[in-house]
Amino acid sequence: MQRAASQGYAIELGVIQNSGGLQGQVILGFSHARRGKQDFRDQVELVADDLAGLLKSTALTRQLTHIRSHLSLVHRLGQQVTSMDERAALLAEITRLVSDALGYEHIQLLLTEEESRRVELVHASGPFAETLMASGFSETVGRGIIGRVAETGRMWICQDVTRDHHFVSNAILPHTASELALPLRLGQRVIGVLDIQSDRSNAFRDDDVFLLQTIADQIAPVIEQHRLLAAERRQRRLADTLADVSRIISSRLEANHVLEAVIRELGRVVPYNGCRVTLLGEDGRMRVVAAKGYPDNAKVKHHSFLAREAPLSAPVMQLQRTLIIDDVRKEREWVWQPGTEQIVAWCSAPLVHGTECIGWLCLDWPEAGFFTAEHGRIVRAFADQAVIAIENARLFERARELSDILEYKVNDRTRLLREANDEIARKADELQALWRRVVDVQERERQRIAYDLHDSVAQSILASTYQLQGIRRRIGDNPDLDRRLIECQAMLDATLGEMKQIIYALRPNVLDELGLVAALENYVGALPSTDGLVTQLTIEGTPAPLKPEVELAVFRIVQETCQNCLRHAAARNLSLKLSYSDPNIEIVIADNGIGFVVDEARLGLGLVGIRERMHLVGGQLYIDSAPEAGTRIQFFIPRSNCSP
């Protein structure tokens, strides 16, 4: 300005400003001319106004471009997050879009774990992202900038971390100069934090902060929706797995198969390196009955121990609680079982049947802090299914043992019954053979007696009759003596008649000479007709010769039946029907006498003899009688047993 003034220029200064305040200054130099100072002032102000307008237009254009890029980011973010199903891909896309649009050095997404009251890192972008993710970064709710945002639900902006005592440095991010943390809110609930860090102070412009809060508000429901969908999928997978386990339990009852299936299906919903089922035996010792995932499963199953020898089993067995140990190496009471040296993290759920704990289902992982409360809940659900399977298997084994015992007893009893039946059959055969011999002896004895009576007594009576006749001719006229001789001769004639009937009853010659029909006609015709008894014999069909033993059996049965009728029935009518038909020979004897109760007469010798004679010729006998209802005796003999 001094050099311009020394060269003869007039200097004039103008201020560039707009509604936002002072923008700058413009200086103009005018050559000496005959113009007034006001003209110079007007020209400077005109140039200043033009520059102010240009600057304002440029700023508006730049702001419009920035807003357009923000809107484009929000639009693209909305399109991406609503179309992704996988949570990891969703979180990665959110951090990528924010990083590409705004260019901040480090962006991280953290979600709140309400049970542990911690904010867990779920995704990060930037040069240190992999290292940060590998470290498993998390922050306690209420501690540091991230923790306070998770606790209060209010945005926190720190343009210079050296002046903010809430800032907590991270060795993995040593160059952080400014930090912006925005809450991910759903109503009044904070589900996480979107945290952005920069290695430059005053890195966050107002419009960028507004955009980031808009993004946070937009992605919060999407993340929650994904969380709910993931939880729903986990629950559905758990339900499907439990349904499969239930199906397996109901389809197979062998203990080994069912327990192996439970362990196998558990791996679908909870990862594990090793899994065991330990049961309390009747002797009070704990035994591993199923194991998977160990270097030597047989070695693990071979070991047994007392519950008091494993102190950590008390919460499971006595209190029936699910127990999770982050690192068994730090537990003083932990007891290593043979073959389980791989265990670091451990989760165990009790097997509760009714009110009694019968063992536990446990699984392990070779890294510390692996199992969560959710894992414990799932393992407990499987334990509840497993105890049903175990009890069903135990009942099945007991039922099978009882079935084997019963089968053995049944087989033994069947053997004894079979032996007894064989003995009875043998005795029956012997009895039948004995009865045949008795019948044969009876018939031979009857025949002998009949022959003896015929040859001796009958002949003697006949000779006596002839002698009486000779005496009558010699004594002449003696009426009294003649009368007495006539009476004596009549007596002998009657005795001879009775003797002939006895001889016929003992052995009817007509049966041997003329056959069954003639013998029956002769016998029925000779029955005494005292008390007005009317007898009737009916023959149906064409008579045919039968085996001698069959004809004799039929005749004897008829004979015995008729004698019983004469002695006991007090009947007025007695009918006998003999039918020759196929496939049986049928004989029916009926009377209208007083009858009897069949059950009370089963042991009578007459009926026993009738039954035995019928069995000897392979026939069947039926007796129908009742008091005051007469008696009907019917028997059948197969024609195949009758033909000579």
UniProtKB/TrEMBL annotation:
Record key words, sorted: Kinase, Transferase, Two-component regulatory system
Limits of the Histidine kinase domain: 556-641
Gene Ontology CC: one annotated term: membrane
Top-rank taxon: Bacteria
UniProt cross-references to SMART domains, sorted A to Z: GAF (SM00065), HATPase_c (SM00387)
PROSITE patterns per UniProt: HIS_KIN
Keyword Nucleotide-binding: no
UniProt GO molecular function: phosphorelay sensor kinase activity; protein dimerization activity
Protein name per Swiss-Prot or TrEMBL: Histidine kinase
